[in-house]
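INFO worker-7 received task bundle
INFO bundle size: 2
INFO processing item 0
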Amino acid sequence: GVDPAGGSTGGASVSVVATPSTPAVIELEREGQRTLVEQRTTVMLQRIPATLSADDVRRQLDELGFRDRVDAVHVPMNRGSSLSMRYAFANFLSPEDAANCISACTGKPFGRPDDEGLVCNAVYARFQGRDLVLQEVAKAA
């Protein structure tokens, strides 16, 4: 078989399952066994310090082992303030990196020590992909 990206699936049939809760999950069926393969690459980092910039988020992700694995970061800012809304979006180069980020960040402080004792919650973002993250950056500028 051929996968949607044009590669070989080694004889497996491929179908794309898209629902609001699991966008772009690819279902592989090989020898009667079905496997869902996560395709989401954009992570929302919730409950992060309001003082973090996009560069700070990138640096923290680099320190967590994701150097050169992130192609877009957006930190929504409060209007009329230099403080963020305490969340950020990061788009990873692979679904595996996104899943590893969720595991690495959830339940731990993110970024520089914060006197509010925030603990990060990392989840898949509702919108997915580098281009959509960059559109959000452009809208905020």
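INFO item 0 finished
INFO processing item 1
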Amino acid sequence: MLSRSSIFFLLGAIFVATTKATCPVVPDNGCSICGENKCIDSDKVDEIFSFPGQPAVPCSLLQTAGEMGLIPLDQCSQLPSLIDVCNCLDNGMKEAVFPPAMKGNTLDVSTAANARSLVVSAAGAVLLGLYLN
């Protein structure tokens, strides 16, 4: 039988696992500093990227400059291997964060259908838990 605190804990874990940020749309004359379908980690926007001979800038400013076409495309294509400090993510997707009891378990949230399925399953578990109380 699930307690109410267990239910909220479970729902919180599922919410974190299914939360997905999206990368900004890059116009044709711009570039993604992280590479195609990647963007900087939203937790790293204030991290400072520095390179000899260039001004030190926050990752967010560097990403915006790339999107606006202010970085030459030949230079932009070299940036992904240089900007580790910005923590580039595939399509803005962060790794799922699970509570300690769930470590080692994996959830496939790579598609909207899988994420919906997880939420429906969690809702079913919550309703069952409330019914059994």
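INFO item 1 finished
INFO post-check item 1: Residues 13-19 have pLDDT under 50 and may be disordered.
INFO post-check item 1: Strands lie at 38-40, 48-49, 57-58, 88-90.
INFO worker-7 idle
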